[in-house]
Structure formats: structure tokens, C-alpha cells
Write a structure and sequence with these properties.
Blueprint: E1 4-5, E2 8-14, E3 30-40, E4 49-62, E5 67-71, E6 88-95, E7 100-101, E8 104-110, E9 115-120, E10 141-146, H1 149-155, E11 157-163, E12 166-193, E13 196-206, E14 218-221, E15 227-235, E16 238-239, E17 243-244, E18 253-258, H2 259-262
Parallel strand pairs: 1-12, 2-12
Antiparallel strand pairs: 3-4, 3-6, 4-5, 5-9, 6-7, 8-9, 10-12, 10-14, 11-12, 12-13, 13-18, 14-15, 15-18, 16-17
Length: 267
């Protein structure tokens, strides 16, 4: 059994018109981190060298003390294998305050909704539980919180060692970010790109773009802090020739899987 010891330094980027940091619980947003490692033999009876590669790949949030949601293209049963060149791996959840979760299983694997639901083997009463809602209106102001890819890659630090099957992490530095915007449309889409295949499903369209790393993060109504969906993808193209998402008004959009569509899989 792998044991993780983590010290986290948190960097926070605040976009304009965002919610105050004081409104965030330290265990409200979790970063999905993949740890790959391998043992490399050394000459002259020296101890094996351990090569380790860790990377942040997405965002998750809890909807009960034991269930969390993320995007399927970030975490699914087909991804449960090490990256090329490595023999061992581990997906862990890391919160802003340095808490970790590693003892869980995937109970819902629905690529057709880009949905993954994980279940902790033991309930965790310290996690922040988000309230879901199926109710929203075009024009509602929303915000999201997550771990954007470019900034996370550029500013994250992973210092990890493994000794006697124990993974020791001296320092992890993560970059968490938030965006605010509006719901501008409901759109029916079919898309097949970068391992994401969605056919004839309805999504919430936002008037701002969410980059890699935000995938799986909650999209939250500003007026009541309820989650109306989770981030799936953003794009700079025409969706089904119906919605232009690069122009002077909307320089890119975010696509959100709706709570009203995936709630059937939660219970």
C-alpha cells in the first residue's frame, strides 16, 4: 500500500469579477494527479534508481461524503494504466490544503456523457460537498474553479521520492484558478476529437473558454453556489454549424455537461 506525505504550496490566480477566495473551502476543489514511476537497475550492486513523473490532469469535486465527479476523458477505466515507459502508476486527488485521497474506485464510467463518478472506500466527512441543481436560465452568471493546464504545468512543482513502497512527497505546488461568465445558450452537439466522443447531447454553452485542466470542474451559479454542470471542453470552432464561438463578442466558449442530464447516474 502506498503512503503519501504531501506539503502543498498553493498559487491562486484570480480572473476579473470572480468570487472571493474566502468563499472557497480548502477541500472544495480537488486536482487529479497522476504519478508514474519505474525502477531502473544500476551497475555494481547499487540500489535501483527510481524515475518518477507526476502531472496534474484535471479537476474533481464531491457531491456526497463518498462520491466525486470528474470528466471521463480525465479519468476512466481505460486510462488506469501507466504512461508509456513506466511500469507503475497511481491516480490521486489532491486538495488545496494538502489533503490527499487515493483509496477509491470508479463506479460510473459513461464516456457518452463525459462522466466519471468515483466512490471512496471510506466516507470522508471532511470533504466539501457541493449541492447540485438542474435549474438555470440563459443569462445566469456562473463561475468555475479548477487547475488550468498551461499555468498548472508552468508553475507546479512535484518533489517526490519512493522508499520501500512508500511514496514521499516533500513539496507539491499547484496552481488553482477561477473564471466568471454567463450562460449564453443550450446547444445540441455531436463532437469527436482528442478522445472525446459525444453524440447528440445537450450542453450548456458559456461565453468564456476553459482550457485544459479545468475539465471536470464544477460550473456554479453565482447567486446560490449550486452546481448546474461540470466542464467538459472548450473550442474555437463552429459547433454543428450553429454556434460561432470565435468572434468579437465570444472569443471562445466552454461546454458544460448539465446536471439535469447526468443526475440519473448518481443514485
Amino acid at each position: 500500500m502506498l503512503i503519501f506525505k504531501i506539503k502543498i504550496i498553493l498559487l491562486v490566480f484570480i480572473a476579473s469579477n470572480t468570487v472571493l477566495l474566502s468563499q472557497w473551502d480548502s477541500k472544495s476543489i480537488w486536482c487529479i494527479v497522476k504519478v508514474n514511476y519505474r525502477f531502473v537497475s544500476q551497475p555494481r550492486l547499487k540500489p535501483d534508481k527510481i524515475d518518477i513523473m507526476s502531472r496534474a490532469i484535471g479537476t474533481a469535486f464531491f457531491i456526497s461524503n463518498s462520491k466525486f465527479i470528474t470528466a471521463n476523458h480525465c479519468l476512466n477505466n481505460n486510462l488506469l494504466k501507466p504512461d508509456e515507459g513506466f511500469k507503475y502508476f497511481k491516480y490521486i486527488l489532491v486538495s488545496a490544503d494538502g489533503s490527499i485521497i487515493q483509496d477509491y474506485k470508479i463506479i460510473v464510467d459513461k464516456p457518452e456523457y463525459d462522466l466519471t463518478i468515483g466512490l471512496l472506500n471510506d466516507s470522508n466527512n471532511s470533504v466539501y460537498v457541493w449541492e447540485l441543481s438542474s435549474d438555470y436560465n440563459i443569462g445566469d452568471t456562473v463561475y468555475n474553479i479548477g487547475y488550468p493546464g498551461k499555468m498548472t504545468y508552468a508553475q507546479s512543482i512535484f518533489k517526490i521520492d519512493i522508499k520501500d513502497d512508500i511514496v514521499v512527497k516533500d513539496t507539491i505546488k499547484l496552481h488553482i484558478s477561477t473564471n466568471t461568465g454567463e450562460i449564453v445558450n443550450d446547444s445540441n452537439i455531436t463532437i469527436n476529437m482528442d478522445g472525446l466522443k459525444l453524440e447528440n447531447i445537450n450542453v450548456i454553452v458559456l461565453n468564456y473558454f476553459m482550457t485544459f485542466g479545468f475539465s471536470g470542474c464544477p460550473v456554479i451559479l453565482l447567486n446560490n453556489n449550486k452546481v448546474v454542470g461540470f466542464a467538459s471542453f472548450g473550442n474555437y470552432a463552429v459547433i454543428n454549424d450553429k454556434f460561432l464561438i470565435e468572434n468579437d463578442i465570444y472569443p471562445g466558449v466552454g461546454m458544460v455537461i448539465r446536471t439535469k442530464d447526468f443526475i440519473q447516474y448518481l443514485y
